[in-house]
Every structure is written in structure tokens, then in C-alpha cells.
Amino acid sequence: MPFFLPLLLQAYDPEIEAVMNRSRQRKQEERAAAASAASAAAVKAPAPAARNDGRIPVPEKFAAPFQQCLDAAIEAPDSGIAFAQKWRIEGGSFYARHCLGFAYARAERWAPAIVAFEQAAEEAERSSEMAQSARLWAQAGNAALASGDAAKARGDFDAALARGLPDGLEKGEVHLDRARALVALGDMAAARESLDVALEQAPGDPLGWLLSATLARRTGELRLAQAHIARAVRMSPDDASVALEEGNIAMLTDHEDVARAAWQRAAKIAPNAPAGKAAADNLARMRDAKTPAG
């Protein structure tokens, strides 16, 4: 199969990036909505400082309109944009700009989303809300990644990390997103450094192990790729993108039966998704490579 593996690997990487980008975008939106609801509830608690989830409660003055703004953006991005702009004029502080960025992101209007998040981050910093500023810089970075501007994304993620986040999931995910930007920029060594921090800070995120395995495969560290894709498979056995990468790594390490089984699983889990289609294509080319020439 002299040409099979190079073609397989070239075809695969864009697919997994697309799957990961969509997955992380959904997670970001879900976290923003969940965080706002938690923050609104937290203002009623007698001791908000006792919270241990890493999020700062939204002050009571802003909690209700912030939730209303996010709800409007989720229902219809244009409604969220209008709400946020009006609220900003009325004194919504950086929370209004935060929602404005969220609404633009929902509409996939990445350029204004980046501006809104960055302005929100700067306003939060002027208000001495450094942790909130860091989170907003990170959201600006994700919007920049979605727009295809990896260099700006890296700068925004660096700004987020410079402003400080507590150890744990949030810091880990910023490093994971920074690694994605660095991979897009071709800086594999720096991407590995950020990924190692991400895996230490957020070991429960299967996307971290998946991206680490993919990077290790690209850089020829096949033992590391095998170990990290195994972690991703254990954590997310029904994820087609994980199964697809498991097959790629298995093929490169001369485990053809494992590769076939992994690709069959990916194609079955998500036959109409990019990962499932890529797996089915790999299986077809595997069959073609075994068919004797007429």
C-alpha cells in the first residue's frame, strides 16, 4: 500500500479540525449560558466568595439583564445584538459587551465578535476584574480561531493567560485553544508545550487527549500518540472523531485490524458527519489497496 497512508493522513487532518472546532464552539456557548444562570443564582447566596467553580458571580445589578441578553442571543442573534447594544448605552458595563460578543458569535460574525470580546476584556480589567478579563480575552481568541486568524487568536490567548486564571479546567482549556492556534501557525514545539499544560490542568477533557494524539502523530511521536488516543477512547468511546484518529494511529503503527475496527466504529457512529465520512473513505481505500490489479 505505498500511496495509501500518505493520502489517508492528508485527507484526515482537516476533518478532525472541523469536528473539533464545532465541538468547542458548542461547548463555549453552553458554558456561557450555564455560567450566566449560575451567576444569577449565586447573587442570592449568602456567601458567594465560597464558590469553588472558578467563576465570579455577576453582581445583582447586572445578573438579570445579562441572563435576558444571553437568552435573547440564543433565541435569535440579532435580538441579542440589539439588546446588548441598548444595555451598553444604559450602563451595562463589560457584561453588555460580553453579551454583544456572544450574540455576534452566535451569528458567526467573527470580526465584530472579536472586537466586542476584546473591548469587554479591557473594560473588565479597568474595573479590576482580572479573572473576568482573562475569560473574555479567551473568548476573543476562540472567535479569532473561528474566523481563521490564528495569529490574532494566539495573541488573545496569551493575553488571557497573562491576566491570570486559577489552576484547573479554565486554564487548561485556554492552553488547549492556544495549542490549536499554534498548530495552525505551524509552531508544533510551542503547541506541544501548551498541550502538556492543558492535559495537566484539564485531564478530563477528551478533546485535549485527541488533539495531543493528533499532534504526536504529525510529529512522528507514535508511542505518545498511541498512549494519548487510548485515553481519549476510554473517555469518549462514542466519538467518531476519536475513533477516526484511533484508526489513523493504528494504521501507522502496523495494527491494520485495529485501524479497520476503529474506522468501522466511526462510520457507524456518525455516517453523515465529516469524521464518519472520512472513516468510510479510509475503509474504501483500504479495500482498494488490497484488491489485486486487473
Features:
elongated; 294 residues; 14 helices; mainly alpha
- For the termini, the CA-CA separation is 16 Å
Q: Briefly note the structural class of the backbone.
A: mainly alpha
Helix share bin? over 70%
Radius of gyration: 21 Å
| Strand/helix succession | HHHHHHHHHHHHHH
Question: Please, how many helices?
Answer: 14
Share of β-strand residues: under 5%
Main beta sheet: none
Query: What is the β-strand count?
Result: 0
* Broad shape: elongated
The chain-level mean pLDDT equals 83
Low-confidence stretches: 1-23, 33-54
Question: Mind explaining what this structure looks like?
Answer:
Helix content is 79%, strand content 0%. The protein is mainly α and 294 residues long. The longest helix has 39 residues, at 4-42. The two termini are 16 Å apart.
In short:
The chain is mainly alpha-helical and 294 residues long. The protein contains 14 helices and no strands. It starts with a helix and ends with a helix.
Architecture blueprint of SSEs:
Blueprint: H1 4-42, H2 60-75, H3 77-89, H4 93-106, H5 110-126, H6 130-147, H7 150-162, H8 169-184, H9 188-201, H10 206-218, H11 222-235, H12 240-252, H13 256-269, H14 274-290
Helix pairs in contact: 1-2, 1-12, 1-14, 2-3, 2-4, 3-4, 4-5, 5-6, 6-7, 6-8, 7-8, 8-9, 9-10, 10-11, 10-12, 11-12, 12-13, 12-14, 13-14
